[in-house]
Write a structure and sequence with these properties.
Layout lengths: L8 H13 L5 H6 L5 E8 L3 E2 L3 H11 L4 E4 L6 E2 L4 E8 H31 L6 E3 L9 H10 L13 E3 L1 H7 L2 H10 L6 E5 L5 H6 L4 E5 L3 H11 L5 E4 L7 H5 L5 E3 L2 H4 L6 E5 L3
Helix pairs in contact: 1-3, 1-4, 3-4, 4-5, 6-7
Amino acid sequence: MTDIANFDLQDFVARVLAEDLGSGGDVTSAATIDEGARFRAEMNCREPIVVAGLEIAAAFFRRLDADVRLTSLVRDGERADAGTVLMRLEGRARAMLTAERSALNTLQHLSGIATLTRRYVDAIDETGAILLDTRKTIPGLRALDKYAARMGGAQNHRMRLDDGVLIKDNHVAVNGGVEQAVRRANAANTGLQVQVEVDRIEQIEPALAAGAERLLLDNMSNEQLRTAVRLVNGRVPLEASGGVNLDTIRGIAETGVTYISVGRITQSAPAVDIGLDFALA
């Protein structure tokens, strides 16, 4: 099973199935399929994708049929062309059809994130820039969404508010300036890296003088980013953020920044098309 930090697979599967089954269970399958009927199926992708969540999807079928036979034909992080069989399944028909939607919803969502993420990673290939995700994830699904982003080739930024100091514009406003906010963060002795968001070139030197260890360059033009790269000259890592899309990310990467963070890879990725199809013996 895929190891995902801060994620309880069995709890997730139980909650998702409970949401789908309600109090009465799968009344359609119970009414139309004999209890002992068997079902053989293939899970197929119907468009080119990057796979993420296949073993998580498998857990839904195993939850309802401990003896189900599952054969995964690809691994998370791999590309799959349209028409690729991702998994073969054989087991109790009622159980398989009851688990189908929960399994597919999860796999389609996570593979959608991985697929979009890979498009961004491919767009900055050979520039040296590194794609980061953000905390813009579906509430309750952060561990899974960020896992999918990793499968697409991104690196994870902060998982939670407690694993990094990131001073943003509202923190700066409350403190009366970048320098004051950074000095206060350093004085707190959290033991965590102190990163600060700047949206003007003139904020850079005060931030560095106060001890900022990383700068987030927010909504800057490519010319401003190049200026920031020259000014900082490798003293701290630089991250570009704000309004990044597939049309603009290559130019941003070519400015020389270390990282580019993109919220839309987890916030706006469309689900991919994957189906569970009856397979002849």
